[in-house]
Write a structure and sequence with these properties.
The protein is built from 11 helices and 12 strands. The strands form 2 sheets. The protein has a 6-stranded parallel sheet, with helices on both faces. It is found in: Cell envelope.
C-alpha cells in the first residue's frame, strides 16, 4: 500500500475509526497497519451465476489473511459506473486496479489517469480495445474465440453421432451483451464455424444480455418467428436456462426437439445436462482471483508477467457431466 495512504489510514483509525469505501463501492472494512496491498476491483455486475462465482473468487482471495484489502464496486452493467469506480480508486491511491469491463471501448481517458497516477491496471474476464496497450498491465480470462469454435466442433461431432450430419440444421443464437469481449469472441467463433458447414443456416441472432429473463424473452420471440429451430447457441448458461423455459412453454422438449449449447458451465448447467435439458456447456472459468493474486505477488517480488493469460477451460456434455459435477467449485 502507498505509504502516505497508510499513514492517513492509521491516523484515522486511531482518532476515531474509519469505514473504508470508495465512491459507489460497497467497501470493505479497513484493517489496521500499512502492510496490506490495496486492490480496487470494478466488477461488471451480478447478472449471472458465472458472475457471482467470479466475484466470490476475488472476495475470498483478496483478504487481509492473504495480504490484501479489497475495495469492491458493482457497476450494475453500466460503463459509466465503472469509470467512476476507477477514478475513485485512483483518488484513494490503491496499489492495483482490476477491471472486468462492461464493453471493449471507451476506456483510454480513465486508464490514462491511472497510468499517470502510477497504478497498474489488470483486466479480468473481458478485454478492451485500446490504441495504447501500455494503459493496462495484463489480462486474465477465457479464450472466447476458441470457446465459440469449440462449441461448433462439438455440434459437428454430435450431429454425426446421432446420424444427422447430412441434414439441414437451422440455428438461432442468443448473444451476450453486445460489444463485450465475451460476446464478440463467442459470436465470431460460432458464426465462422457455422459458415464452414453448408448444412447450417443461422436464422437469427439477438442479444439476451447475459440474463435468464432476457434469454427467455428472446427465445420466445424466436419460437414464434420460426417453427423449425434445430439448435440454440446461448452465450451463457443463464440465457440457456431462460431458453429452456421458453422451449418447454412452447410444448417442445429441450435437449431433444431442440439441441441447446451454452457457455460458462456453472454447476446448474451440469444439472441440466444430466437432466437431458442441456446438451453441451463450454466452460468459461470464473475463478480469476487466484491468478490475479499470482500476478500481483510476482510483481511485488520484482518479477514480470505475460500480457495475455488464459485460464484453463473444458467442455462438458452427457459423457462427463455426472462424473465431474461433484468436483465443480461454482
Amino acid at each position: 500500500m502507498k505509504k502516505i495512504f497508510g499513514l492517513v489510514l492509521a491516523f484515522a483509525l486511531i482518532s476515531g475509526g474509519l469505514v473504508f469505501a470508495g465512491g459507489a463501492a460497497d467497501g470493505e472494512a479497513a484493517a489496521a497497519g500499512d502492510d496490506l496491498i490495496v486492490v480496487g476491483y470494478a466488477q461488471v455486475g451480478a447478472e449471472s451465476d458465472w458472475r457471482t462465482a467470479n466475484t466470490e473468487s476475488f472476495r475470498s482471495t483478496f483478504v487481509p489473511e492473504n495480504g490484501y484489502r479489497l475495495i469492491f464496486d458493482d457497476a450494475q452493467q453500466k460503463q459509466e459506473n465503472q469509470i467512476k469506480a476507477i477514478r475513485s480508486f485512483i483518488q484513494q491511491d490503491v496499489d492495483y486496479i482490476v477491471v472486468a469491463p462492461v464493453v471493449e471501448t471507451g476506456w483510454e481517458t480513465v486508464l490514462g489517469e491511472a497510468k499517470a497516477a502510477g497504478i497498474p491496471v489488470i483486466l479480468s474476464d473481458r478485454q478492451m480495445k485500446l490504441s495504447d496497450e501500455s494503459l493496462y498491465l495484463c489480462w486474465v480470462g477465457g479464450d472466447f474465440l476458441k470457446e465459440g469454435r469449440d462449441s461448433v466442433t462439438w455440434l459437428n461431432n454430435y450431429l454425426a453421432e446421432i446420424g444427422r450430419a447430412d441434414e439441414p440444421i437451422n440455428v438461432v443464437l442468443l448473444q451476450g451483451t453486445i460489444g463485450s469481449s465475451a460476446q464478440v469472441g463467442r459470436t465470431q467463433g460460432i458464426t465462422e464455424g457455422l459458415a464452414e458447414n453448408p448444412n447450417y443456416t443461422l436464422l437469427a441472432a439477438q442479444t439476451g444480455e447475459f440474463t435468464q429473463a432476457k434469454g427467455q424473452e428472446v427465445m420466445e420471440s424466436f419460437l414464434k418467428a420460426y417453427d423449425d429451430i434445430d439448435v440454440v447457441f446461448a452465450e451463457n448458461d443463464n440465457m440457456a436456462f431462460g431458453a429452456i423455459d421458453a422451449i418447454k412453454a412452447a410444448g417442445k422438449v429441450p435437449g431433444e426437439d431442440i439441441i441447446i449449447i451454452s457457455f460458462d458451465a456453472v454447476r446448474e448447467a451440469f444439472n441440466r445436462i444430466i437432466a437431458g435439458e442441456l446438451n453441451c456447456a463450454v466452460e468459461c472459468n470464473p475463478l480469476h482471483g487466484p491468478r490475479v493474486d499470482e500476478i500481483i505477488k510476482t510483481l511485488e517480488a520484482g518479477g514480470t508477467v505475460e500480457k495475455i493469460q488464459y485460464v484453463q477451460e473444458g467442455l462438458f456434455d452427457i459423457t462427463n457431466a455426472e462424473e465431474l459435477l461433484p468436483t465443480r467449485a461454482y
